[in-house]
Amino acid sequence: MKLLELDGVSFNYGSQLAPVLQELKFSIGAGQCHCVSGPTGSGKSSLLNLLAGVQNRPHEGEIWRHSELITGLVMQDPQTQLLRQTVGAEVAFALENLGIPAENMLPKVQLALRRVGLFLRLDTPVSTLSLGQKYRLMIAAQLVCEPHLLLLDEPWAQLDDHGVSELLTVLRDLIAEGMALVLVEHNAAAFTDIINHYWQLEAGRLSAGIYTVRDTPMHDEPTRYRGSASHQGKVLVSAEAFDFCFDGCQPLFRCPQGFQLHAGEIVALVGANGSGKTSLLKSIAGILSLKLRIPLKVLGRKPKLGVYGGELGLLLQRSNRQLFETSVLTEMQFSLHRFGLPKERAEQMLAELGLMMLAEQSPHKLSYGQQHLIALASLACLQPKVLLLDDPLAGMDKHYYGKVWYLLKRLSAQGCAILMSSHRVVEHSAVSRQLSLYNGLLTETIFAMDERDVG
Amino acid sequence: MWVSCSRWRLFVRRCWSRECQETMLCALSLFFVCILSACAFVLPVDLLLPLAAINGFLVLHGLARRGSIMGVVKLGVIQLTITLSLYLLLYGVGHLAQGAVVVGRIMLATIPGWWLCITAAPERIGEVLSAFLPSKWAFVVAASLSLLPYMAEEVREIYQIQCLRGARITPKALRNPKNWPELVYCVLFPVLIQLLKLSRQMAVAAQSRHFGKSTRVTHWHSPRDKK
Lengths: 455, 227
Hints:
The structure holds 2 protein chains of 2 kinds. Chain A is α/β, with parallel strands linked by helices. Chain A contains 12 helices and 20 strands.
């Protein structure tokens, strides 16, 4: 049964602007799974909004919908979709709008939460969930209405491997029951089991196939790049054994051995959604003060906000929050100016990354990948001794992925100790060690050279 | 006769169900808060002390419900500093007490609102407001209240990120008024941009969850309150 069809649909965000989507022809039937891939900023999210019927701007061409079609849309950033303060109320929001009696809501809400693997109390504050858990909550908030068509924007980037595998099980069942699914995903391979149709969206055109990067990302390594397992540099961050707990709460995780970060090494901090990776990074940067202090020394001092100047950099998730200048160049020069460093570094960095064409553009008008890279580059310009990155590869396509790694290897070669968090194992030869944060335990894994070189 | 009595009892039981009690309690709290906040501005100075005592009870109750008063305290301190500085510059030392009373009134108007945010769920406030406001407006009020803790956290994170980037906005740097504009464009501008983006995305999120489709909106009641 056909649920939705686009015929010659074109769309733009203003009559003077270039069309985002051009002459799209696309049809979705019950029980089908379509995957749309494409570079960042190619209009994939706009396409999903159009399919969901929540795009308020007019479009050209025809969109046909089945008269009883119920669609569910989960956008990329779960944080901006939260409308209520507790888990139960959030999931029940759609039921309230459909006029479902209050006494019938509870079983539906509980079932939706169970389907996405969220076994939480209904009065759990949404603010206490990790980003991945919030994404699953958003899926539950859509599944509660039993949609005929579910639209998901980059689930792989938001969920850990366990979350993805649980989601796959749920989606497989739903598809078998006749629900149609459209995924926008950079990593289509993670959902191969359920995808029937592959599409690529580039320059506004939709065609069959999987998007592949044409302009090869930078692979040239800086001259002093030393390879992986050697991390004989000076100790820049050290922590003795500790229990990490928020005030008045049970320990979130324990670190019985402590850990160290050496100059010139890239260390991955890997753990499931909600395991405490971001909180640990914030503690190291000195912006999270807990009553039970962690026995930490960063650059020979106890962590405190603002004591390290340009020697410590922290890049949090949704890095576009820190942008405020009117051009990319001034944005990058801001910290250089404040720390009394040469402003020319900003231009050099942009040239090196092949982003000079963005120099005079407003940082707010860039795509997600570009904004993220600019935020990272403005930290890299400072040539910090310690760099803390919270999931810097999430939501990046292969083009920007290559540029991020180029920057990280360059900094590492300059002696910078980099600690990067991720909710899955970082498969890159530049990573010398891994701090694993699983089951409430922070432990260290050292990769042997030959082990890393396999494949 | 007996049948109509049972029906009446059933009707009363339904009307005075747990959900109804919660909603009524929230409506009373909302009314009480409006009266208290209005009193903070209209009562004569000599009646402010009893009002402060009532507010004191609200603070104790809010703290017992694990609310954090730090935000209100910070607001009070900033308000006091700015107001007293302006009174000192414009009217001299003799009028400082008047400035303090103005700040006191603002705080007495703020505390009941803080207490309501802690004791009542935003969706419950939305339900009460929907009785006399269009449901879309009630949702906007409830969503704005839900957004407050998130935006407070967002402001804090943006402030910390900009401090790490070298912005002259640390408490020490802000002692110099020359650095105050930096707080505006490093923190306030990004926060406003975030707020604009957020309001647009929240509207899409609400729309994608069938907001505005039905004229008969129902309301979720957490099973927690059943206890």
